Amino acid sequence: MWKVILLLMAALPACAQSVSVERLQQTLAMLKAARTSDAKMARAINSLELTERLTNPALDRIKAEIKPGPKALLSLELLSYSSSFLDPPQTEFPQRAAPNADAEQSMMSAARSFAATTLTQLPDFIATRITRSFDNSAAAAAQLRPFSYEWQLMGNLSQEITYRGGKETVLAITSKKFESNEAETEPGLTSQGEFGPILATVLGDASSGKVTWSHWETTATGMAAVFHYQVSTSSSHYSVDFCCVRDNLPDAFRGNSYHGTPGYHGSLSVDSETGAILRVTFEAELDLSEPITNSSVAVEYGSVDIGGKNYICPLQSVAISSARSYLPKEDRDTTVLRLNEVVFTNYHRFGSSVRVLTDPPAN
Fold first, then answer.
1. What is residue 15's three-state secondary structure?
2. 48-50 and 264-271: which strand pairing?
3. Residue from 222, 326, 346 nearest 273 by CA
4. Of the ranges 96-100, 188-192, 325-329, which one carries the lowest mean pLDDT score?
5. Minimum mean pLDDT among 9-23, 197-211, 262-276: which range?
6. Which sequence spans correspond to the domains of the chain?
7. Distances in Å between the alpha carbon of 178 and those of 83, 152, 185, 245?
8. Closest to 50 (Cα-Cα) out of 27, 34, 70
9. Model-level pTM?
């Protein structure tokens, strides 16, 4: 069972202007033409919510055209991460006919084989997981409108992880930096299983759920077939754990915890030639009456060199969660959104070498 551990204070933002990727580009072009300051452009971006996924190629084009300052750039990147669970604009879809039913079944069969065999045969290796954690707690506490996407950086964390015998283990925390003492003492949003279990969970559960064809996408590694899937609560092995992290909660919040395996939905991007899974998303279907109302994870995979050979491994992931948060000074609750952006890098084969000396060393 793949587990997402959610020990945090968070929730969905309230008011934001919904725009398409094209409208975003037009808005940024107008702001640039008006010589808008970096801070004001960042604030304008923070007030937006995308209705389509801002893909990496589109994001790179916007960066090249707008040349945003550091604040606007960070806001733009966070806007892109927040859109990770949406389909890209249809204008980006390749002009290619949809596969027939037999071809769909063949690609899904290849994807199941990839998750069951290829990923379990990865060599032992060591890698670095770099996490940037953000939340909008300050904006939520101040009840800012419409700037509910006023993100603040809570901290950076670098961890060494090993993959040995098909199991992922955190080896050591190599560096960490929190923006405040309060942030350092609060639990964060974490995920695990990107190196295989997450895919096995989706494909195993989806076999008892509903899988439908969506569209083609062009990726850095080739043409990807994108499927949408739906898993019911009865078939789910997606575990979500959330617990109240403060001891000074009023009586109404004493039971502010959630532990369960909710139903979920998402998308699978499959290499049409090899069956390699290039992208996967999870979105838990949580009741709005629960203390946690959103738990979503998106993982992107790509080719990585390990010991002179190429393997498909995670490159980046985005985790977003939301839950109720109690504000003791105001004696009220609010909702706060939390986002983790994770990059996997520095892949190296894990092992040892032995050199046999056939001649004794000269005296």
1. coil
2. unpaired
3. 222
4. 188-192
5. 9-23
6. 3-7+99-348, 21-88
7. 25, 11, 9, 18
8. 27
9. 0.83
